[in-house]
Write a structure and sequence with these properties.
Shape of chain B: rod-shaped
Distance between the termini of chain A: 67 Å
Largest sheet of chain A: 5 strands, mixed
Number of strands of chain B: 0
Helix content of chain B: over 70%
Structural class of chain A: alpha+beta
Strand order of the largest sheet of chain A: 1-2-5-3-4
Number of helices of chain B: 4
Oligomer: heterodimer
Strand content of chain A: 5-15%
Helix content of chain A: 55-70%
Structural class of chain B: mainly alpha
Radius of gyration of chain A: 41 Å
Shape of chain A: elongated
């Protein structure tokens, strides 16, 4: 039997050879990782020694063979456990990598969606601005005929309705309910039904303002984002307002609100303020400072500027802006350019807010 | 048969319990024959599984020869030698089962490495895409605050 087994093992199995195998580094590993099997191998080796001491070489060889087999079993188990540990560690790394990948994909999709929305809104605003230019240009000679004017009004109304639709979609995406969007959708629908071109244009403007308010209401429930600042900038640009980053916040200059030395807004200035109230409503989380100016002697200038600021703030309040959001402030400084203007300073969008990311960096 | 646990447990229990005692006190022939029959059944099971592992195949063949040797010794009423051959067969089967389990673990590890490589590559790709999107967003956010472009002068007589 011994010869048969030795042939199968491919060599001799004297106790000395087994002892060498027991001293191998992998055997030491096995003693730690597979102690029971290693102990069985040790006992077989002791049996071999006992048989040798008893002068029974055949039994010694059999026990040595068994010891070798058991030691190899312990080593194989040790190797298997080491591989299994490596596999488990690898699977943990894979799990972490998968989570990281999923998180990165979500962040990228969100960024791309925001960029796409901003781009769509920009295009819509450009179209709307073009529509304004067409419809509200002060040169009546541009219209060769009534038909052409009507066509421009219809086109402008269509663009405004498109923009109102975008605002409603954005508000819905931000979580606005159907009930909250009902007014805007109703105004949009009514505008679509209005046939007379000029009336259609007016109703489209109303629909857009109503949609802007709905968007503002939806935004008011969310955390402020840098996108909101970008949205304010784009809205200002569309409305033809100069924007300037100042220490207190993002300032929009509204020119020609007042005429002469009066403290009340002109009819045109009132219309401007009412239109801009929609922008203020669409960015609901920022307090707004209304800064007015005046010309004249210093004492008179300060008094009139304060009155103008209060009057402009009232127009905004009458247009639906919460009074507590608006702070009126007369400015003593003046120059020819700003004398009849007001500045609307959105104080939540200071220089620090301008740099804030919308999505946390992974 | 689970080569990671059951067979190993059964075989090692036999090996560990019987190891070291049989030499001094060989069992009765009937007990030994029953154990050899049990070892032979286990060998048949392992033989099928061992087709995937060359080293295990050789070890199972060795166990088969030891079982045959033990039966021969038993027929010759050499119970001590039969006992030792039986123990060698049990140890060889335990080793074969462990070699099969080791091969199986290697295969799982290779699969885990392949998947880890794939997922890592996908994660790196997702990271690069995110970084590109962040750059696009930063570029978009850093556009200068410019006054609106002046409205186009309406041409005489219209015709936009």
């Amino acid at each position: 039997m011994l010869l048969l087994l030795l042939a199968a093992c491919g060599g001799t199995t004297p106790i000395e050879t087994i002892d060498e195998r027991f001293e191998a580094p992998e055997a030491h590993e096995a003693r730690t990782r597979a102690p029971d099997m290693y102990a069985a191998a040790e006992r077989a080796r002791e049996d071999a020694r006992a048989a040798e001491d008893a002068d029974d070489p055949e039994a010694a060889a059999d026990h040595a063979t068994r010891a070798r087999l058991l030691l190899e079993t312990a080593i194989a188990e040790s190797d298997r456990l080491a591989l299994e540990e490596r596999r488990l560690a690898l699977e943990e790394e894979t799990r972490v990598a998968e989570e990281r990948r999923a998180r990165d994909v979500r962040a990228r999709v969100e960024i791309e969606a925001n960029l796409a929305r901003a781009e769509a809104a920009r295009v819509a605003r450009e179209q709307a601005a073009a529509a304004y230019a067409n419809a509200e240009g002060d040169d009546p000679r541009r219209f060769r005929s009534r038909e052409e004017r009507d066509a421009l009004h219809r086109e402008s109304a269509g663009l405004l309705r498109g923009r109102a639709g975008l605002m409603i979609a954005a508000a819905r995406a931000l979580g606005a309910t159907s009930e909250e969007l009902a007014d805007a959708e109703r105004a949009l629908e009514e505008s679509s039904r209005t046939r007379e071109p000029a009336a259609s244009l007016r109703s489209a403007e109303l629909a857009m303002r109503t949609a802007l308010r709905a968007l503002g209401h939806a935004r008011s429930r969310l955390e402020p984002t840098a996108d909101e600042r970008a949205s304010l900038l784009e809205a200002a640009e569309t409305a033809g307002l100069d924007a300037m980053q100042v220490e207190r916040g993002l300032s929009l200059r509204v020119p020609d609100v007042f005429a002469g030395a009066g403290a009340a807004p002109s009819a045109n200035g009132r219309r401007k303020l009412e239109a801009i109230a929609a922008i203020v409503a669409a960015h609901p989380r920022s307090p707004v400072q209304v800064v007015a100016y005046a010309a004249g002697a210093p004492a008179q200038r300060e008094r009139v500027a304060a009155q103008r600021a209060a009057a402009a703030a009232r127009v905004l309040s009458d247009a639906g802006i919460a009074a507590e959001r608006v702070q009126a402030q007369g400015s003593a400084s003046t120059n020819a350019e700003s004398a009849n203007a007001i500045d609307l300073v959105f104080t939540a969008f200071g220089p620090t807010a301008a740099a804030a990311p919308t999505t946390p960096a992974p | 048969v689970c080569f990671d646990c059951d067979v190993i447990t059964i075989l090692l229990t036999a090996v560990l319990v019987s190891g070291g005692t049989t030499y001094a006190q060989p069992r009765q022939g009937a007990d030994l024959r029953r154990e050899l029959a049990e070892l032979d059944r286990t060998r048949e099971d392992l033989e099928r599984e061992a087709q995937r592992s060359e080293s295990a195949r050789g070890t199972v063949e060795m166990a088969a020869r030891a079982i045959a040797e033990a039966r021969t010794h038993l027929r010759q009423n050499q119970r001590a030698r039969a006992e030792r051959a039986s123990q060698i067969a049990a140890a060889a089967l335990a080793l074969a089962a462990k070699q099969i389990a080791l091969e199986s673990t290697r295969a799982r590890l290779r699969e885990a490495e392949r998947r880890a490589s794939l997922v890592t590559e996908q994660a790196e790709e997702a990271r690069r895409a995110l970084e590109a999107a962040l750059v696009r967003r930063a570029e978009s956010a850093q556009q200068p605050i410019a006054p609106p472009a002046p409205a186009e002068e309406p041409s005489e007589g219209g015709g936009d």
